Structure prediction request, 367 residues.
Amino acid sequence: MKINGKAYRTIWPGEDGASVVIIDQTKLPHRFETVTLRTAEEAAHAILTMQVRGAPLIGATAAYGLALALLRDASDAGLAGAVALLAKQRPTAVNLRWALEEMRRTVAPMAPEARAAAAFAKAQAIADEDVETCRRIGVHGLALIRAIAEMKPAGAPVNVLTHCNAGWLACVDWGTATSPIYQAHDAGIPVHVWVDETRPRNQGAALTAFELASHGVPHTLIVDNAGGHLMQHGQVDLCIVGTDRVAANGDVANKIGTYLKALAAHDNGVPFYVALPYSTIDWTIASGHDIPIEERSADEVLSMHGQLTDGSVASVAIAAAGSPAANPAFDVTPARLVTGFITERGVAPADRSGLLALYPERRESAA
Ligand code: MRU
Prediction:
């Protein structure tokens, strides 16, 4: 994807071979800044503070973070310690655990002196694979958008509603939910995106709207509570969201508020699709009840972060001093409310059989 005409991924290896560079997403959309990570501790900090966020990108960052750790200490203890450090930074997105397990499986059988170089190569392979996986998600999702476009009057845009940021900033490139949108736009299909602002951290306002604008995709930012109203008035043709973890029965964890959008979509007969790479499926858990939900700081609810009229960036309090606040960061949408999954292998019903039809190699191991 391009920013000011220059192609970027969200993460890339430093030229010195001993660092990795990320886009600091806490600064967007007001500033575009990169940060160089040199240690596993810095990678862990970037994940925790959400300089990088989004399930696939958290996984890729953890993979590079482990490679950075092995440059300093490639012993078995060093490997185990770095995996534990990186894994505990965010609990809901299973891609974090998936990427670390891929890394551990690759390097653990090797002699310590071979581990760091192999880890960098594997982290790069994970990042490259994510790009291709997301591209393929887009190819399959594009067919859905095209089918809807063909049922509309010529030239009328397909209105897609999305929540949070499941865009290229959440992945290494393309995005999951946004990949079909970018590919439809590039194919000349008129698309328009309703962007949920996504309180409390406003990933929709700060990141998705920024991405779509950078790519020239028509979009409109809405408050989180507007989606149901728009659906009642025929202004949403389909919803596409991302996910942080899909259980073996098809239940979907995603950013808080996704469930309410799925309920509204169901009530209004609006198709509700979830786009995901295979690395987001947690085959070890039978249902969404078992997905750990991250509880974040009350400060995120009690304040808003943004640019002041003088151009400076600041946080302002939005509640009376001392107001208590709760901040569950994700919710679980039951599979019955999901029209289908858009994956790199194709589109399938959101249930156990649909997942197993796409990934038959999991028949024996799925919970
Ligand atoms: O808390 P965040 O910003 O990491 O949450 C991100 C989301 O909820 C995304 O929808 C999800 O990770 C899918 S990203 C392709």
Summary: The pocket of MRU is lined by residues 53-56, 93, 164, 166, 170-171, 176, 203, 242-244, 254-255, 329 (CB under 6 Å). The mean pLDDT is 97. The two ends are 37 Å apart (CA to CA). The domain at 2-129 is CATH 1.20.120.420 (Four Helix Bundle (Hemerythrin (Met), subunit A)).
